[in-house]
Amino acid sequence: MENRKKGIILILLSALFFALMAATVKSLGNIPVYEKIFFRNLIGFIVATYIIIKNKKPILGNNRKFLFLRSFFGLMGVAAYFYALSNIALSDAVILNKMSPFFVMVLSAIFLGERIKKLQFVSLILALLGAGFVIRPEFNYTVIPALVALLSAFFAGSAYTTIRYLRHTDSPETIVFYFTVISTITMIPFMIFGGFAIPSPVELLKLISLGVFATTAQFLMTHAYRYAPAGELAIYTYMNIIFSTILGLIIWAEIPDFLSILGGTLIIMAGYLNYRANKTKSRLSK
């Protein structure tokens, strides 16, 4: 099997596991968000520590300021995403979270000096229009979870932009290690003083599965990028929306309404335009 096909298969599996993670978060309605975040990162922390030690990578890293900044953005993104998953339809939360590449585009232009091509600008307008359809602003408190989902995309985009800066100074293993350590430790005071919900055996199994799904998805994505460029694989990550919609339909009988379908379609179209723009950019740079 050629490398590109391997990369596509791995990125599709990654999208599936991210959808399973999101569905697991939503199913844990009686567990506080901070407890879900703790278990989501605990498994990742154990795996990242093992890899760091095995590969003899520097634990403390080089650019500690930006490692902490990336971890902060990542943690805020996960917290906002988990809150949204618990309060709106699974597909809507995932659709709005997939706005993150467009925030990367804008933030990279502002802070990294990267140019936004005309096609990318069109994709940004389409994505914002799509997000508007999904959010359906009614100017009351019911819109808050949807806005928080969009905020999760902003923080995720900020984290990805920071990673693009860190790639020149620190290894992926060190970046993941910092994020999982900080996220896990930060949640401990919340569980002590905010109230720890003792999970039932089924909930405990789900919490462990949450960490396994998230860690598996992350490593599948990492391996996918070894076989094909990120720009070529990015479009396939939008399958997360399809997988999540199917899971929402099967588990909670959630049927997306017309505006959600329209908004999701526009965001996927925008993702495709962004993919084409990046592919053209990478071809011209060769």
From TrEMBL:
The chain crosses the membrane at residues 37-53, 65-83, 95-112, 119-135, 141-163, 175-198, 204-221, 233-252, 258-275. It is found in: Membrane. Pfam families: EamA (PF00892). It is a multi-pass membrane protein. InterPro entries: EamA_dom, EmrE-like. Keywords: Membrane, Transmembrane, Transmembrane helix. Residues 6-135, 146-273 form the EamA domain. Its main location: membrane. One of its GO terms (cellular component) is membrane. Belongs to the EamA transporter family. This is EamA domain-containing protein. The lineage of its organism: Bacteria, Bacillati, Bacillota, Tissierellia, Tissierellales.
